[in-house]
Write a structure and sequence with these properties.
The protein has about 550 residues and is of the alpha/beta class. The chain contains 24 helices and 13 strands. It is globular, with a radius of gyration of 25 Å.
């Protein structure tokens, strides 16, 4: 594969696309597929074939378009019209009306059921208009199973530019200048991590992609892998060149079979065109990737536990230092970033670090993907500039709270994050400002709660999750999360006292300060944030100290 060959493939695809009067994409992300998108795709392709329209109308699968609760979604280009909740029997009607007769089917337009303004162009909706897509720029507009379409969208040009036009140090310098911070949760400067791995001298180095996305309500990495797998693969290859690695691993959850399938297909197609494997793009650089499927342990999102799992050992964290950059896989220097981080690399290399640094805020550059979930009208996958207010994300992009209810809190950062109340709706969403209000960015889960939610119950839910997912290696996490869960359960069930609440407040910082890894260190965060902003909900459930605690009712199944 050469630059001329990339140009040839891109020109061929564009010529074919220009020959279409309309190009129809059916969202075939996991969410839409579960709603019947596969059948809609098959019906549309059959209609086009039966009517002899194959040279005029192209029908293709694509990745997540964003508004996941409106699926199955059908997008018609170049009009950029999106139809929602399409059932198989409606597919032919919409295709014929829009693509053949030029009539927009208004009753099925996106967000038509919401009662607000309805637009023929998707880009006119605040949901899309206020987003800035970098990591997600190809999702929903290219076929994720086609290498040729990715190349036509500019794919693998960044890799070519890096291999033929930049020294390793120059690639790292661009990433450093971009200000990109790790999108997996901790927010460590990406360029600094790359530089650290690069500086270690070793006969072998590794590049690892963390796709072990375990936060409840989070699906950003899944959406990228399903919708644009080549972007992640290209980012990993650029990273490998920069740090001097020849071997990479994608560590992905077993619960993501579609992401695994599409990434495997991307690797197969890339190898066939010498974009992966030996002598990439005709240079002396070689790099290949293997997939490792995790068994669903949340703790394997922690880097040292993840590396142990790749090696075939039990996924448990180890003390640091040494960090993986020095001693990672099999004791060799290892670079580890998550899916979204790698998805930002190709645009940075092509457009420059200065371009990326101009997006977002001075300390939190670029964009961030979020998975909107919970009590919000427009659930789904979005990408916004760092520094956008939480209010804008939830009420302008997310559409606000449904059913006439009022906003109560937003939980960011998954089980490691905190709950942000109404008085902080105008907080800029970036690493620093979220920390100030007692939460974290995390990987990007954003769960919204309305006035019917019990914040004590929310804290209990996340504590139960952390308790169940603790690997058990260190006592503070293994025992501490269990004790905190038991105390929260007593309070929720009306059996707690002020003494129990005081013990919770004493335990939380102890577990936070003494746990071995991030799971235990951050497990108390939902508890601490709800205590900080909703203390009245705790005290309202407490029993007087001198009153006997209600005992659970004995049944025939209760041990005596």
């Amino acid at each position: 594969m050469t630059l001329d060959k990339l140009d040839e493939i891109a020109a061929r695809v564009r010529k074919l696309e220009h020959g279409y009067r309309k190009k129809v994409f059916v969202c075939c992300g996991a969410g839409c597929l579960s709603s019947g998108a596969g059948e809609v795709l098959a019906r549309l392709q059959k209609v086009v074939k039966d009517r002899g329209l194959e040279q005029e109308i192209g029908v293709f699968p694509t990745g997540c378009m964003g508004p996941c609760n409106q699926g199955p979604l059908v997008r018609v280009l170049p009009d950029d019209t999106i139809y929602e909740k399409i059932v198989t029997d409606e597919a032919e009607t919409i295709l014929v009306a829009h693509c053949c007769e030029g009539k927009v089917v208004e009753g099925k337009l996106l967000f038509a059921e919401g009662g607000g303004p309805v637009f023929e162009k998707a880009g006119d909706y605040p949901f899309f208009k206020l987003q800035q897509r970098v990591a997600l720029e190809n999702c929903g507009v290219v076929n994720p199973e086609s290498l040729e379409e990715y190349i036509a969208a500019g794919g693998y040009r960044a890799l070519y530019h890096a291999l033929t036009g930049l020294a390793r140090e120059e690639v790292i310098a661009e990433v450093k200048q971009s200000g990109l911070r790790g999108r997996g949760g901790a927010g460590y400067p990406t360029g600094l991590k790359w530089e650290t791995v690069y500086k270690y001298v070793s006969d072998e180095k590794y590049v690892v992609c963390n796709a072990d996305e375990g936060d409840p309500g989070a699906f950003m990495d899944r959406g990228i892998l399903e919708g644009d797998p080549h972007r992640v693969l290209e980012g990993m290859a650029i990273a490998a060149y920069a740090v001097g690695a020849e071997k990479g691993f994608l560590y992905v959850r077993a619960e993501y079979p579609l992401a695994i399938k599409r990434f495997e297909l991307a690797m197969k197609h890339a190898r066939a065109q010498h974009l992966l494997g030996p002598a990439i793009l005709g240079t002396d650089f070689s790099f290949d990737v293997e997939i490792r499927v995790g068994a669903g342990a949340f703790v394997c999102g922690e880097e040292t536990a993840l590396l142990a799992s790749i090696e075939g050992r039990r996924g448990q964290p180890r003390p640091r230092p040494p960090y993986p950059a020095e001693k990672g896989l099999w004791g060799k220097p290892t670079l580890l970033n998550n899916v979204e981080t790698y998805a930002n690399i190709a645009p940075i290399v092509l457009r420059g670090g200065e371009w990326y640094a101009a997006i977002g805020t001075p300390k939190s550059a670029g964009t961030k993907c979020f998975a909107l979930a919970g009590k919000i009208r427009n659930t789904g996958l979005i990408e916004v500039p760092m520094g956008m207010s939480l209010r804008t994300i939830l009420f302008d992009i997310g559409g606000g709270i449904p059913d006439g209810r009022s906003f109560k809190a937003a939980q960011t950062g998954g089980p490691s994050g905190g709950c942000i109340p109404e008085q902080h709706l105008d907080v800029p969403v970036d690493f620093e400002n979220l920390a100030k209000v007692g939460s974290i960015m995390g990987s990007g889960g954003l769960i919204v709660m309305d006035d019917t939610s019990s914040m004590v119950d929310v804290a209990r839910f996340f504590m139960e999750f952390c308790m169940d997912e603790s690997c058990g290696k260190c006592i503070p996490c293994r025992v501490g999360t269990k004790q905190m869960y038991d105390l929260l359960d007593q309070i929720c069930e009306g059996r707690g006292t002020a003494r129990d609440l005081a013990l919770l407040e004493e335990l939380a910082p102890l577990v936070k300060d003494t746990s071995l890894c991030g799971l235990g260190m951050t497990a108390p965060n939902p508890l601490l944030s709800t205590l900080r902003y909703f203390p009245h909900e705790y005290t309202a459930l407490l029993q007087p100290e001198d009153k006997p605690r209600p005992q659970p009712e004995l049944t025939s199944a209760t041990p005596h």
